[in-house]
Amino acid sequence: MTLATLIEAVPNFSEGRRPEVIAAIVEAIQAPGVLLLDAGSDADHNRSVVTVTGAPEAVLEGLFRAVAVAAERIDLFVQRGVHPRIGATDVVPLVPIENITLDECVVMAQRLGRRIGEELQLPVYLYAAAAMRPERQRLPDIRRGQFEALVESIHLPERAPDFGPARVGGAGAVVVGARPFLVAYNIYLDSSDVALASAISRAIRESSGGLPAVQAKGFLVNGQAQVSMNLLDTEQTPLHVVFDTVARLAGEHGVTVHRSELIGLAPQQVMLAAAAHYLKLSIEEAERTVENAIRRKAAE
User: Fold this and answer.
1) Catalytic member of 45, 83, 253, 277
2) Is the pLDDT of residue 95 over 60?
3) Are 82 and 21 in contact (CB under 8 A)?
4) Where in the chain is the domain with CATH 3.30.70.670?
């Protein structure tokens, strides 16, 4: 029996307010063989995150179709939201899931980026493990200044795209890459003080000397201060460590955590590790679930 090869993709689109546009993108991405796992939108961020999986060729086709629809339907000259962006399809990460390596996903990211550049005539930047330049490994570095800065600077040598034309239309640019699993995680404070959320973000993000493999930024969402994070390696910095640190820093200012949320999906092991921590269980005890027992029996 041939084992299935699976990748995951988690494209982010700069639209979270027009249901008909979001629906068109979600429909386009579901090429034959693509399994839609999750789709979520946020009006304040004006952003949608879609999670799909499937065989690599099917996923690449679905992604290309979705990028084409987003380019037709989203105009960044008028789009506004609190989340940084440089493209209608802002970022397209490929993640190895089953029987495929990160290096192989790099090759696929390059193929997808080249096709987007050539067929859709959009500027494309490669990031993370697929980056062709060391200064483009981090997404925030590519996105610095957002779409508006890119319009003014794409003609400069340091801003030249990896694929596609060195010009910017309303669809902006697309960032394509390959990376390990990332957990997108937000914590809402019981406060409207966005300056506090920004200060906490500076304290915890790795680039400011904070927690390893953590990116963070402060926002005001629906009147609440939000610490928005990407956790790049939850083995280095587990989810519960992030939560406890943000809660402690907020508490030093007399503020409590209101709630937290996942954007997209997280590996089960991440959630079990958090449960084990707060329930004072060993990870082996936390894994004693009905679902795990059923899976083990089915595999016998």
Assistant:
1) 83
2) yes
3) no
4) 183-266
Please state the CATH superfamily assignment of the domain spanning residues 183-266 in this structure. Formiminotransferase, C-terminal subdomain (3.30.70.670)
| Mean pLDDT across 229-245 | 95
Q: Write out the residue limits of the CATH 3.30.990.10 domain(s) in the chain.
A: 6-178
Closest CA to 129 of 93, 181, 179, 92: 179
Q: What mean pLDDT do residues 160-169 have?
A: 97
Q: Can you give the pLDDT at residue 3?
A: 62
pLDDT one-digit tens code per residue, 147-157: 999 999 999 99
Q: Name the class of domain 6-178.
A: alpha beta
Question: Active site includes 83?
Answer: yes
